[in-house]
Amino acid sequence: MKSATPVIAQQTAIVIGASMAGLLAAAALAPLYQQVLVLERDDLRDRSSPRKGVPQAAHVHGFLAAGCTALERLLPGIVERVEAAGGAVGDMLQDARFYVGREQRFVAGVSGIQGLVASRLLLEQVVAQAVGALPNVEIRSGVQVSGPSFDSAGQRVIGVICQPHGASDDAQQALPATLVVDASGRGGRSRSWLQQAGYLPPPQDVLPVDITYSSCWFKRDPAQVNPVRAVFVAPDAATPVPAGMMEQDGERWIVSCGSYGDRTPPATVDELRDYIRCHSAAEIHAVIADAEPLGPLRACCR
User: Fold this and answer.
1) Rounded to 5 degrees, what are φ and ψ at 247?
2) What pLDDT digit, counting tens, does each position of 153-185 carry?
3) What span, in angstroms and rounded, lies between the C-alpha atoms of 227 and 25?
4) Which residue intervals of 119-268 are DSSP H helices?
5) Of 13, 35, 106, 249, which is most buried with the most CB atoms under 10 A?
6) Cα–Cα–Cα angle for 117, 121, 126, nearest 5°?
């Protein structure tokens, strides 16, 4: 049986949000639409630090093997491009250590399963370059979407209403589209937009996580040989504190730890070091005990 060949429609798809979800949605839609337009509120010209719409960019990021496979399907050659930009690929058991609690370590060895380590800033930058280079995809930053536009019967979304970020409503314009995808993340307003249009809200289940991530980048000495590129610690009953350390582009380590419920998260770099020493794998503390921090501690709540 022959596989179906996508037929390019003479239509436009609009994606709200140019984070990883929005960028990859645009890559998936590109073979199916004549034009794919990605609208992002934040200014994407400065990628030197985490932007407002992606506060989690200051924390541990990477792709497991299945994630790398999914990336390659949408954007062939993307993993090599991330490597060329400063990321690294390693064996998930040979180049990484996995713990449950402080001391129970998974077996180490050659798994043949490759993971990708890179900062969120680098991942997003390389993916955005690849998606933006697709001939029928355009990424516009500094654009605020104020809501969808509907047909005269109010039954079908036919585009979006948008304006330059920070501009008055007088600057609003309508952009037509056959398909609108809201990939704006936790700040997405699709639920309220549909309610304002008279639709009942979909059922919602809320599972509170109540976790705070605290992270910091540390200087990595390229001359110092470290046997692993990443260490991950899953919480257990005795030590309910997840943590991770990962090699990063720019000769850095990033270290993140989580704090659940009423447990007070570290607020300074010294507190992070002490927190890791008391609650996490000794391998992480050995690296950061004397390493130079590259900036302040950053926190993100879930």
Assistant:
1) -65, 140
2) 888 999 999 999 888 888 889 999 999 999 998
3) 37
4) 120-132, 190-196
5) 13
6) 80
pLDDT by residue (tens digit) across 82-127? 999 999 999 998 999 999 988 888 888 899 999 999 988 899 999 9
- Cβ atoms 175, 159 nearer than 8 A: yes
Distance of CA 123 to the CA centre of its chain: 8
Rg of the Cα trace of the chain? 22
Residues 6+ apart with CB under 8 A from 59: 120, 213, 215, 254, 256, 298, 300
Edge-to-edge order in the sheet of strand 62-63: 62-63, 114-117, 88-91
Lookup result for tokens 């419920």: 261
Task: Say how far residue 15 (Cα) sits from the centre of its chain.
Answer: 16
Q: How many CB atoms lie within 10 A of CB 24?
A: 18
Rounded Cα distance, 281 and 239, in Å: 11
Do the Cβ atoms of 196 and 246 come closer than 8 Å? no
* CA-to-CA separations, 150 to 15, 37, 156, 168, in angstroms, rounded: 16, 18, 5, 22
Enter the tokens of residue 43: 């200014």
Secondary structure letter of residue 17 according to DSSP: -
